[in-house]
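User: Small ask, check this?
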Amino acid sequence: MTPYLKLISRSLLTTCFIISKLAWAESSDTTFKVGAGKHDVTPKEAVPMWGYGARHDALSTGVQDPLYAAALVMQVGSNKLAIVGLDLGRSPAEKSLHNIRRRIKAEAGIDYSFIAGSHTHHGPVLELSDEPGKGRGKFDASLRYYKEMEEGIVAAILEANSKLTPAKMATGSTQLAFNRNRHTKIEPKPSDRELAVMRFDDLSGKPLAVLVNYTAHPTMIDASILKFSADYVGAMKATVEKEMGVTAIFMQGAAGDQSANPGTNSGYQAFGAALGREAIKLASSLTPTEVTQPTLQVKEEQFKFTSRNDFKNPLLVGAYSKAFFPELVPNFIDEFADGIRPRLTVALLNGDIALVGCSGEFFSNHSLRLKERARVKQLFFFGYCNGYHQYFPTIEAVAEGGYGADSTVSPVQVGAGEQMMNTALTWLYQMRGKIK
């Protein structure tokens, strides 16, 4: 070895030793903390409802049950992560999402967040904007609501942050046939049937929060009912909170091709209560333990994909306007003007718990394959997260065709979902030091 290489080698060893010492010192002083909060985000005025195009711009007529933002904040050293489950059809639109993230960073030092809708089809339209022909004038109540929604989501997160306390945690999962594949006619039909939970207790053993991750469209209430409702998700959370005395956070999975399978649990309330009892059974079977050397790594990226649709074609725009309503469509066109820009957010907690958030309706085979390939203790897949860019079918689903796979509701280029899943997989192996 030349003197120059010896010098480099000695320098690298010294540097590695110093980094190792600093990492050990930082970890030894780290306490894992958790807090939870909740805030009502139900619109107070009549506004257009999200989820069913056939409603067009029909206004809401009341409240069947309230809509909430439920937030969980985790702290590892100086890093804070917010996980927010919303009783809304989707994550807030880009402008609102930016406002929320800016505020929680400034007011609570929270750099990272998963903010996701449950995908209820009985929430408010979130895409209108304060411009002529895009919402202003005709739908000013919606524009007022967006500010109220932002305030409510921030309030839930700040409440959770104010309650941060040293905590123990446990994760677990079970298979539950409460969903079905509504898309494919090819057997076997894929369905991600994993019910996964995170349970958090304080150091005395008192439960603080339970995060529930399952995959099924909350579309159990008839489209003709123009009242706000969290659908089965609200009944599920209420069941968990009443029984366990915790804040329940629901995070929807890769539900693009998954409907609820009610079986004997007829109606959204009975179905939600049954799902809640399963979540309680699973959470109660877990024994939370102290996290002695917690770690948190987070990475996020916005992709840029081409569109299968030409949104400059007036005939196509006219068809969308007729299918939905004229003020809504220009906002989608604006968002897709520079290509379709979905967001991927990946976190690795304590080296073996993965959180993957995607801003769209991903088909279940995406999450199934990622869970199989990631080789972590537990992978939580969050759909409708940190934005919304419509359906992401698998390549073979596009080849089969049908609703959710055709370009009318899935304008993103074919293979976009696979590309994002491969990126998530690569990041997870990089975070664990298995890929340099």
